Amino acid sequence: MYFLKIFLALFFMTTAISGNAQEPSSASILDFEYGKDICVTKKSGHLRSERTFSIKKLPGNNQPIYQINQHGKGDYGKFKQVTWDAVAEVVERGGFLYPNFSTQTIKNEDGTVAIKYEKIYDYRKKRIFYSATNKDGKVIKKKIFPIKGKTVDDLTMGPFLKAVIANRDKKEHLRYYLVSSEPKLYKINVKDLGIETLDHSSGAIEAIKVRLIPDFGILTKVTSALVPPTYFWCTTNSPHEVLRYEGLETGLGSVCVIIDTEKVERDQR
Length: 269
Hints:
Layout: H1 2-20, E1 32-41, E2 47-58, E3 65-76, E4 79-93, E5 96-107, E6 113-122, E7 127-133, E8 139-146, E9 151-153, H2 157-166, E10 175-179, E11 185-200, E12 203-215, H3 220-226, E13 230-235, E14 242-248, E15 256-263
Parallel strand pairs: 9-10
Antiparallel strand pairs: 1-2, 1-15, 2-3, 3-4, 4-5, 5-6, 6-7, 7-8, 10-11, 11-12, 12-13, 13-14, 14-15
């Protein structure tokens, strides 16, 4: 009887633990994630910005839909001492994330809007509608890009790349498209660089490292020699948590940065 009680206690304890633990989706996304990013300039190591983010699964959908939120403070792109709020919605299909929309509002120190970026992904028309508006809500830049394949932007790229990392043994998954805030559409090839020990802000971590290589067509070799290389690190185990990004901050001509990502334990809100 004593051993039976011990067995039952362990059984219910294990069940409770596994019931509370989150299982990653087929796209390596948890139902709820919260974390922070520390961004420094690569050349000087000086702090450039700090950001918090959350990813939350939205209830009541036939296909899993996640909302991504980000709040940042500091320097960003050509903007100095600003704050920004960004929100995106992504849908999970076939083990990958596909953005529905992405918006980012950047504000000056006095709270006035410096610029607002918006990207709407229309998969029926196979078009991406980009716009940038000023403080008065006037559209100052507009562009339409074709959807040629899996496409993300700077806000949705990190969560998206977790699924790419998980499928890095399949050649057909090692390419995607990136819409920048410039705006430009880049084809990106992913090169698996194996596992290394990453000197992360939270300590030494075994990490998967990949290089993200923009495809400039016949100018790729020449341009790659002029553009700083872009690297991305994730944890070795599922759900392949994002650890670090190193590369241009917002696009060609922007500063080269290192962004360390740390997960933070937090109740769902």
